[in-house]
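Let us work through a complete example step by step.
Step 1: write down the sequence.
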Amino acid sequence: MTRTTRRLGVVLFQLGGPDTLAAIEPFLFNLFCDPDIIDFPFARIGRKPLAKLISATRARKVQHHYATIGGGSPIRRFTERQARALETELSNHSLDARCFVAMRYWHPFTHEAIAELEAAQCDEIVLLPLYPQYSSTTTGSSLNEWQRLFRGDVPVHNVRAFYRHPIYLDAVVEKVDEALSRFPRSERPEIVFSAHSVPVSVIAKGDPYQRQIEETVQLLMQRGAWPNRHRLCYQSKVGASKWLQPSLHRTLHDLAKEKVQEVCIVPVAFVSDHVETLGEIDHEAREEARRLGITRFEMSAGLNDSPKFISALGQLVLEAMGDPAYSSATIHTLPQAASPELLLAGD
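Step 2: predict the structure and record it as tokens.
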């Protein structure tokens, strides 16, 4: 039977994560082999041996994080749920849409997503990196891999950084409100926004990630209208080079010295729960806060497949396709705030 409607393919990009403890080292090896992550003179010769060395060492250090969250990353499961929910959302806009998951460093890899996309015979494609803020080490790396592998001749549209999208911000605010409601007095805890750190050298080359993270925090505080004190920190630093500061570890010590008793951590650069949220924050940082005398510690849950977030993704896809009802002038109405090596611990 001949199709009478155009079929849209949406590719959801994520970094991915090891689904078993045995997958940690090969996942990290894939990450360290990425030229958008590790680049230096004569890198073509030295990148793989260096990746092998670092991944073996790093795997032993992070294994306990994955063990505490069930023995593997849940990011594939959450991203596939997002894909199915987004298909339903787009069908509500009368679109025949098929969504595919493309992980950068573990299954399903980008080439697997492309094979599924081609089999579905899509007439138009939207690329949807699930990174709210742009970095060359996340969005840039995922799209570079796409460019290396995709050979189709159908129209392709890109969804750009969406940290200013009002419904995305509403989705985050909703999760923060839920976390604050677990405190005896919601206005009392200090809100600590935690983003994955990147090397300062990446920012020095013009990467906008730090500026966009800082703006995200300002927009969330405006939109949430919380009276709470707040601060921003960075997590998951690896190696001896200089990364964005202050660290989550340092921030917890600072809070304890300031006699802050209640803390609400908001993962501000992630859209799914994974090892950085469930392992590093909700397990490791929670235990460190307890040792430091912080009496109440909560973390806002990941967006995952929350209805508000899926609605935001749907609007982003429609905007990328040029739907006038979802033009940039319509959805980007917030005032502009003034002013890895990424993810080496994995997802």
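Step 3: interpret the result. The mean pLDDT is 91.
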